[in-house]
Amino acid sequence: MDDNKSAVLICTCGKQLQLGFDFLETHVSKMDLTSSVTVHDLVCQEEGLTKIAELLKANDGHLVIAACSSQKIHPRIGQYLDSKGIDSSQIQYVNIREHSAWVHKDLDEANKKSVDMIRGTLARSAKSIKRTLEKKEIPPHVTVIGGGIAGVESALSLSNLGYEVALLEIADELGGHVRSLPVVAPTGKSGKEILSGRLVALQNDSNITTMTKTKVKYVTGEMGKFVVHYMSKDEEEKTLDTSAVVLATGFKEFKPTSMDEYRYGKNPDVITQFELSCMLSEGKLARPSDAKPVKEVVMIQCVGSRSEDYKKDCSKLCCTFAIDNSLEILEKVPDANVRIVYMDIRVPFENEMIYKESREKGVDYIRGRVSMTWEQDSKTFVRIYDSLLDKYLETPVDLLVLSSAILPPDGTSELSETLGYALEDDGHVKELYGKLRRNETRRRGVVAVGGVTRPQFVFEAVTDAQAGALIIHNELQGGKIESIARGAVLNLEECVGCSLCAQQCPRGVPLMVEQTEAEETDEEQKILFKATIDTLNCHSCGVCQSLCPSGATQLNFLSNDQLWSEIDATLEDAGPDYPITLCFYCEECSVSTIDIVGTRRMEYPASTRLIPVPCAGRVSIIDLLKAFENGASTVMIAACEKDRCHIGGTGNEIAQVQVDVAREILNAIGWNGERVDMFRMFSAEPERFTNAVNEMVKRAKKLGPTPVHDGTAGKWMEVSE
Amino acid sequence: MSQSKLEKVIAPKRQRMLDMVLALGGLKEESAIPLSRVKEELDKLKIELAPLTDAILAFPDSYFTKFLETVEKSRIIAEISDRGILKESISNLEKASSKIESESLKGLNKLIIDALDRMTKVEAPSETSVDIDIPTILSTISDLISEIELITDELEKTSKTEAESAQAELVSLVENLNLIKTKAQTDPETALDELQKIGAKTRYGPGMRAAAQVKRGKREGRIDGARFHNLVLDNMLTEAIRGVIMFILGKMGSKTVVQIGGLMQTSSQAIQNALVTMIQRGEIEMVGLDGDTPVFSKVRTEVPNSTLVLKIIVQQFRGIVKSLELNVAETANESLRNLQSVLERLKILGAYYETALSEPMNKLRETVDNATETLLTSQTSDDAENLKLLVSAGLEAFARFRLKITLEKGPTLVSGTNVYGEKLDPEVYQIMMDTYLDNELERGTILILIRDLGALTAHDLAERTNIPQDRILRHLLRMKRDELLTLAGENHGYVLYDVPRTPSEAEIAILTASNIALQLSEAKVELERILSELKAPDIGRLANSLEVFSKARDKLASVRVNGAVIDETTLMEVEDSIRSAVLLAYRTRAKIPSTRPKVTLEDLVDVDVPSVLDEYRNQMGYAPLLGFGTIEWEQSRCLGCKSCEIACPENAIELKPRIEIPKFFEISEEALSQLPSSRSLFYRTVQNLATVKPSKDISLENEVPGFGSVEVDLWLCVACRTCVRRCPGPENGALELELKWNLPEVVKHIISTS
After folding, report:
1. Is the dihedral of CA B319, B322, B324, B326 positive or negative?
2. Residues B260, B254: Cα–Cα separation, whole Å
3. Smallest Cα distance from A410 to chain B, Å
4. Which chain A residue is nearest to residue B695, measuring alpha carbons?
5. What is the pLDDT of residue B465?
6. CA of A527, closest CA in chain B: separation in Å?
7. How remote is the C-alpha of A166 from its chain's centroid?
8. Which of A169, A204, A503, B6 has the fewest Cβ atoms within 10 angstroms?
9. Tens of pLDDT along B616-630?
10. Is the alpha carbon torsion for B23, B26, B31, B36 positive or negative?
11. Mean pLDDT, rounded, for B398-421
């Protein structure tokens, strides 16, 4: 592609920046890719904005703005230009304030750094292309899997937002676990009461199709055109076209048949807490073995929870449910004796109130464990170890109630194979990012709400469901999606079908399509695939681009050529006398941290050159090696912390392996692998960035000139012969 | 290609290949057999089964009702002293009752539970003191040995009589077989029919299945005339011989190859050939030697307890003999020799009617125990104090006996030297002895308790002995390894340990009945489910559950209470129904093949393995083998994309995290230009930067997308070529399959040589 010249607009920030603007102007105007240089005092004010519009028009959109952080200025400029109907998609920003003027005392060095970075950005700008508004219409239809409280609530919310909803429930009745709760803390209402209003609304809602006794088998396609394959009521396999999926499959109560000390499954009077709930809500409190009245009740907490053998962590709900049920028992049988054997009682929020109430009403709390259960003379006995008294108690019981662990429902892992969401170690659905992207899953267009993500109280699940519905609405925009397509674009011709993009995309956007027609004529009987990528579904992290062996998939705002020429231009003057450290930084946590370094005027060496990438995962091993080829002494990537990649959890890990391999390769080919490294940081940890940069600058000095500087690079043949 | 020759050359892989020919043929068949035909066969089976199933499903009820009556009347449960057996029976019956509704099983369970409760309550250990002199004991022992020998004679006679009565049947079988051999030369089809009839008599499963498959192959034209003739002459006859061998070993006891050959009027060579495969199939095993010749027997899942008990008695007695005075020792030695010979004879008998031995065997055991005890009290030594302490502790005789020897020998080791001339440090000896004494003391206590109180868990023992539970467990494991203890089920999650006991008739009856009740209840549920709506994929399960009925019936026919078989008439009546039902199910199974179309023998080369794989694996239990080949991997064309690994149906190919970096420097310019752009740019950049050419590969800890070395496990590779076809590398990819031997060629070869 031909290189386009760009206008450069340099902002003095109200003449406050300690930079030699004359120096910048002189040097930048001499650059080949510069069409004009304007030094302006207030780019972010009305007159500056007018200037931008003017320069864009004169240079067909090619404009480099050297000013403060794009995090601050970009939104303002974008908004202004949008309001004027001017395309701003090709503007490139270079931060000479936080990344240069504010952090380097030496004016000469800061000037040099700024010039280098402007030169690099000019190269990026030279190959930029216009991005246009794209539209896509998709059916405003959402499928909700699971008809418990979360599923019902999200179906109602989605319907209110104007979507058609298919609500699929595996059981023959809606309502899930909530239907059988005798009382839901802290409302004092029964589960049925809480459900009833919603179920009526559901029935009156013509947008919602409810299918019970329906089991989802697998799902194909992507956001906007998912196909849900399910077994209908009459055991027929059917399909359903839908645009997004809400996973609300709830949870499963652990059945502790394998824990012999409790005799669950062998002795009918040993039941789980939920089984007791069912019993109470049906009003049939009696001993299951002989239907005699219940007086002595022992409840055991943490059955399977907080246990290395079953569920490692706390199940959160069981304490509250146990107290709910014991109060319910006391109400029905006032002279009943309820004892709760616990390890720690954990009742969050206002549930503390019912704990207090239960103590007042005489529920007996015993800190300890039950070591054994047995039957004698047709009675059930338990042996309780009281750890506060250090004593064993043996006592007959009418009912032994096990507060057993809350597990993810059956089939969660099977569905993940085709729905593409990630799972936590404990089998619950993994949320994209616990702080900022809750309810979203790894797969675009699939949200998970309610108990399937973690044990949740009834009203937590309701809020979760509403949040999930809003996320879907945000994605589907009522079926008429309209945006400037910013993301990966696939060149089908170049795609070799290796599927690396589909394997590694953090959000599962690329799909592999078998080329059956081409296969028929292929002489070698090859199994042929090509990828497809819907740019409107893309999160533009660039992982696919980094891994693609043929350059078939590239971000439309940062192609390989753009980045490589930027590296080349930035490092134009890099040499052994003034060793340069090149830093790729992600525009999520890292940019924020580096900007804070600037605002706090924390100094670091000026021999650093910074290049922004949307996500660390965009940096390929070739990019790293290119930096060395062009004269960098050390190269680093600044990225989000482990498990905190904003793109979907794995962009930073892909970057990490690129760095690891680059390091090994450098060591093998006669370099020092320490010249490349990766550093993680949260969004407001300025020290971590300055420490990292100082370390890499130190290494650059310590390791001295690179083989590229020495002229020995590429001379391996002479050495081996 | 004769059978015997092939078995010598890579038998397992060839076996897989032959299976493959038959099964893929079967897979193809579906295209020839329309669905309507399958339905027709199923309907036919349904009609044929209908009159049989009622009787089959009803027989367990009838049997167990009668069983309960008999048990109530005869009160045999009261005779049972082994709690382990009672507990196991209860657990079986509870499980069975959870599957099906049966009053008789519940009744039976209640009886046993009551009996167990009574036992738990009456717990007054009777203390008997013994004071008998050694010669008297020895003479009692010798009397008992004679008694046992007589019974063993009887047992051998019975087994011989059984063998003789089987003899007549065998003669007709062998005659038949010989006739068929001759017939097979001229008329293989009739011969195969006849062979199948023999199969029905010997009930040798693998043979019956093979015959059905060959027949089907012929019918569908997959196996041509000449090949068919060959198969009948060779493989099918061998299978028939195997059937007869099983008949002999089952009904006439263990035999040597020469004996079998004599009985079958067949050369030892042919028998030997047939036997090898049977050993591989785990059907028979070697149990002893007759002179230098190995004796073979049917594989038995369990050794009778009396044999185990006798083994222990022999060990114990051997110890006694060593410490006796000369003249007494001689008598004892003779008894020992007799005991050993009885043990050998019982081993060769394999399975026998244990109950007959129960009484004298238990007496013998008690007497030998007493003898050891007497021996210890009568003889004195410097360590008498210790010994008396142990005796008064009421310790188990056997353990004390080992102790005594050690105690006597120990001091000499300290004062003198051992055979290697080494001296033992007195302090070390002291510590050793202390630990040893403790251990033996504790183990003795444990054995005594278990013998008196029935099976116990580590937990029970810890409560009774005050020995820490983990120590108890270690002792139990040690004694289990020495075969002093056996496992007897579980209690509250703890394993129950018991001493080997010779079960009485009552114990065998109750245990077997409860066991079978469980099996039958499961099979009944399954059978009812399948029959409610008979579908083609269920046919295998149908046959299996009918087999369970068949085996259960046979087993029940051998259960005796007070010497009589229970509900004999029903058992007799139902026998034929079950047998016919099993045969009908197998026949239909042979007629309706699986449901996979498209495969023909001719285009086996092009079989899309992944698409037929699941079905094949379900049928055969392992993957099909299309041939043997090697996969060549060319690093320079590899993109490290793992597509091969993902596509491989057998998990035979893997991208290992190892970078063969020296090869980066050996890629030709032409090869580089063929590579996708970024890939070649990467290699070029590395070359441009390098100052030296690496000599070693890079090993990475984790997988790295885009990098790695492909490794193929040829043992798993089925040469299906899927990886080669999937590889997206340039110029037809980085992988190449070189077929060293492929199935269609083998098939052609077989056809051309026959």
Report:
1. positive
2. 9
3. 24
4. A668
5. 73
6. 5
7. 26
8. A204
9. 555 555 555 656 667
10. negative
11. 57
If you average pLDDT over every residue of chain B, what do you get?
A: 76
Report the length, in residues, of chain A.
721
What digits encode the pLDDT tens for the residues B220-245? 777 788 888 888 888 888 888 888 88
Q: Is B751 on the interface with A (CB under 8 A)?
A: no
Chain B residues with CB under 8 Å of A526 CB are 725-726, 732-733
Contact state of A524 with B705 under an 8 Å Cβ cutoff: no
User: What's the rounded Cα separation, in Å, for the pair A596 and B132?
Assistant: 98
Most A-contacting residue of B463, B642, B669, B686 (CB-CB within 10 A), to test interface: B686
| Token reading at B437 | 């004494």
Distance to chain A for B698, nearest Cα, Å: 7
Q: What is the 3-state secondary structure (H, E, C) of B463-492?
A: HHHCCCHHHHHHHHHHHHHCCCCEEEEEEC
Give residue-wise pLDDT tens across range A274-321.
999 999 999 889 999 999 999 999 999 999 999 888 889 999 999 999
- Partners of B705 on chain A (C-beta within 8 Å) are 500, 503-504, 547, 654, 657
Contact call for residues B559 and B509 (beta carbons, < 8 A): yes
Does position B283 have pLDDT exceeding 90, yes or no? no
Chain A CA closest to residue B674: A550
Choose the weakest-confidence range: B97-111, B329-343, B363-377, B692-706: B363-377
Q: Report the alpha-carbon distance of residue A497 to residue A515 in Å, rounded.
A: 10
Nearest Cα residue in chain B from A375: B492
Chain A touched by B694 (CB under 8 Å): yes
Distant-in-sequence, close-in-space partners of B594: CB < 8 Å, separation ≥ 6: B26, B27, B30, B615, B619
Q: How far is B50 from chain A (nearest CA, A)?
A: 28
Tens-digit pLDDT profile for residues B180-232: 888 888 888 888 888 888 777 777 777 877 888 888 778 777 778 888 888 88
Q: What residue type is assigned to position A373 of the chain?
A: T
Alpha-carbon gap, residue A444 to A538, rounded angstroms: 9
Q: Please, is B167 exposed, middle or buried when counting C-beta atoms within 10 Å of its C-beta (0-12, 13-18, 19+)?
A: middle
**What is the residue-averaged pLDDT of chain A?**
92
Residue B475 burial (10 A CB sphere; 0-12, 13-18, 19+): buried
**What is the pLDDT, as a whole number, of residue B373?**
66
Chain B environment of A665 (Cβ under 8 Å): 659, 661, 686, 698
CB of A229 closer than 8 Å to CB of A217: yes
Q: Do A548 and B678 touch (CB under 8 A)?
A: yes
Sheet holding A296-303, edge to edge: A270-272, A399-404, A296-303, A337-342, A364-376, A379-386, A391-397
Question: Per-residue pLDDT for A214 more than 50?
Answer: yes
By three-state DSSP, how is residue A221 classified?
strand
pLDDT 10s digits, A74-128 = 999 999 999 999 999 999 999 999 999 999 999 999 999 999 999 999 999 999 9
Is the pTM higher than 0.80? The answer reads: no
**Confidence at residue A173, expressed as pLDDT on a 0 to 100 scale:** 93
Q: Give the angle subtended at the CA of A450 by the CAs of A445 and A451, to the nearest 5°.
A: 120
- Residue pair B418/B425 in contact by the 8 Å Cβ criterion: no
Q: What one-character-per-residue DSSP string does A568-608 give?
A: HHHTTT--SSS--EEEEEETTHHHHHHHHHHHTT----S-E
Which residue, chain included where needed, has tokens 């079978």?
A: B516
B564/chain A closest Cα distance in angstroms: 35
CA quadruple B222, B228, B234, B239: dihedral positive or negative?
A: positive
What residues 636-675 of chain B have any CB closer than 8 A to a CB of chain A? 639, 641-643, 646-647, 659, 661, 665, 675
B694–A668 CB contact, under 8 Å? yes
Highest mean pLDDT among A221-230, B13-22, B74-83, B289-298: A221-230
